[in-house]
Amino acid sequence: MSPLYAVVLGVIVVVLLAVSLTRARTVKTKADFLVAGRSLPAFVLVFTLLSSWIGSGSLLAGAENAYRHGFAALWQGGGGWAGLLLIYFIAPRARRFAQFTIPDLLEARYNQVARVLGVIAVLFAYTAITSYQLIGGGDILHLLFPAVISATLGKYILAVFVILLTAIAGMSSVAYMDVVIGLLATFTMLIALPVLTHAAGGWSAVTHTLPASHFHVLGDFSFVQAMELFLPTCLLMLGNQSMYQKFFSAKSERDARVAVVGWIIGTVVLESVIVALAVVGSALFPTGEVAQHPREILAYSALHGMPALLGALLMGAIFAKVISTANNYLFSPATNLIEDVFVRYIAPNASNKRILIVSRLMVVLLGIWALYQALGTESVLQKALYAYTIYSAALTPVILAAFYWRRANAAGAVSAIAAGTFVTVFWDSAFVHQHLPAMIAERDAILPALLAALLCLIGVSLLTKPPRPEQLAQFGN
């Protein structure tokens, strides 16, 4: 391996640490740590939203899907695109609400039980998402330093670095690091695609090398399989707490809405480029080590299919994207433990200094939990879909209902969150496989979990008392 790769990674690490330490000087209060003092302009919001969404789920799981199935892997990213179109109308309402976490929203619109169940669902989903970012970072470090760093040791190293960066300055640190990371990743990937395509012999060589199904809309998926990729990402996007926290951090409603436009454009372009890179990489490297670990195709292509400088920059961009997403999804549940548990129930009168100390401690503890999950995970794609499904089924329906369905009430929300979480967690159990027909039990959890949540939300809400007018006022209902 060229020392250039190590130099580029070293520079990225130093720059990110410098940004984080610089922003730490601005953190004086709880609001500074949790929502960057509600001061983020649209430009910063675009890149922090883009960086928090495009991480290992796209760079590893999405790329693995593209390596195996071609452009049909875009069904996974397409769910997020559909969600983004709806978010354009939700963003100003979310900024108007201006709280700290999704459970804040759940209690204001429903009740305390919904808040507590929301915290549980977020903790399960977001630490799972953080865990596979650590897997991705560990893979990259192992590829670069195979004789020195194993994939497992790489997970430990990345966990320490992510915990440190996240704990230093909270949202302010995360958001401004994302600007640096987003710019690097965007320009590097746009340059890398034509270079890698040329190395593969041109686009015609790629299409002749790969199966024709790689270039069809559904590929070798059935429509149901495509929906099992589409729905979890669509619903995660619509209810994504990290996204809502960015809107809560915006300077104004206008900044929130403008940022969504930039986010839509950036997400469609980058996720399409990621899938295209993986497809071209599958034509260039159809066998060998990467065929056994296709989630590494982007990093492997950077290392073996590009000029040294561009390959090093692409590897650095992928590594930085993984760090960024890990920061975002580690920080988000830490805010839940602070705002929804510590301040709400344990120390409501705690000083800003005490809250900041406990906030950083929560980041450390959740980082350790995410690392524990990473050490026991084999498939990034399966872990991603599990995390997306918990959040999508349990929380997204009640979050959207808070803004758009006046009749949704506390009883309906509580039953929906509980049902969605329960079905997702236990869907792969022996009981389900023993007592349900194989054609149902072998389906992904998203369809049964979402159905259970929607039936509870709608049915229970209609059978019980409607919400009070004061619960509706601040949501524009």
Automatic annotation (TrEMBL):
Location in or out of the cell: Membrane
* GO CC annotations, alphabetized: plasma membrane
* A family per Pfam: SSF
Q: What family classification does the UniProt entry report for this protein?
A: Belongs to the sodium:solute symporter (SSF) (TC 2.A.21) family.
Which species? Silvibacterium bohemicum
Q: Does the keyword ATP-binding apply?
A: no
Q: Which PANTHER family match?
A: SODIUM-SOLUTE SYMPORTER-RELATED (PTHR48086:SF7), SODIUM/PROLINE SYMPORTER-RELATED (PTHR48086)
Sorted keywords for this record are: Membrane, Transmembrane, Transmembrane helix, Transport
Q: What is this protein called?
A: SSS family solute:Na+ symporter/sodium/proline symporter
What stretches pass through the bilayer? Answer: 6-22, 42-61, 73-91, 112-135, 141-167, 179-201, 221-239, 260-285, 297-320, 354-372, 384-405, 412-433, 445-464
GO MF terms on file? Answer: transmembrane transporter activity
Task: Give the way it sits in the membrane.
Answer: Multi-pass membrane protein
